[in-house]
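During the no-cost extension, the postdoctoral fellow (Dr. R.K.) reprocessed legacy sequence entries with the updated structure-token encoder. One reprocessed record is reproduced below for audit purposes.
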Amino acid sequence: MTVSSFEEANLNKGWKAKLLLKFIEENNKTILNHRSHQGPLQVQKLFYPESNGACHAYILHPPGGVVGGDSFDIKIQVEPNAKVLVTTPAAGKFYRSSGDEAFQRQSITVSDHGVLEWFPSENIFFQGAKAKLITRVDLSEESHFIGWDILCLGRPAIGEIFSQGQLTQKLEIFLNGCPIRLERLVVRDNDAILDAKWGLGGKPVMGSFFCFSPRKDLVDLLRQNIDLFENGDLLSITFVDGIILCRYLGNSVEHVKRNFIKFWQLLRLALRDHEAVIPRIWNT
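Re-encoded structure tokens follow.
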């Protein structure tokens, strides 16, 4: 789905929400220089739990769930030397739809020497959900970006599988306007990808972790610190086109988060010589 198709989609029903955040560095502290919102997307009070003036921002969606016809457009701009961690307080829930699709677009720009740590909670797609999601990240040579994307198809805790529904998800990472990572996932009703060995193998939880860095040697550091699984979960760590890339496929959101948080802590110290500070909302 291109930006233009998002704009031109038939969005006559449901919530229409937009959020624009621009962060700058001022007197050794990151501040939210510009904020605008429309509809049920907001940012909570900013937090400063770190000694280096980094800002922790929580994006809120008060309705708590997404239905067919809803559309969300989030733009985040991080200016030079600004340091930002963005997360969400709860999982995104995409509910069953009898007709319309839900749309979500996220556009992220990180300038030279800007820092963005992008850690949204997982998205849960209920049986019968119809959704299109696109995330675009624009970086420069000296940008620092680290982030993850976690999704769960169905609700395995109650035995619900995602045999009916439609999901299209795209992730695009650009360096100086040129693509360095383009990914696309498409799942349709009764799709063979759900159970095939060449696909998801019946596992409902997927996670991707990205760190933009030239430090290929850090792959070995992460591999040495993987938490062992006992339920057949899979996890890989590679280095491709200047990105440290971690993949998870399994049955547990808790497992993938535990590993991804550990990887972030290790990379934060190795790349920025500064210990990670866990957002306090993760402990509630």
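Confidence is low (pLDDT under 50) at residues 1-12. Residues 3-283 form one domain. The remaining legacy entries will be reprocessed before the final report is submitted.
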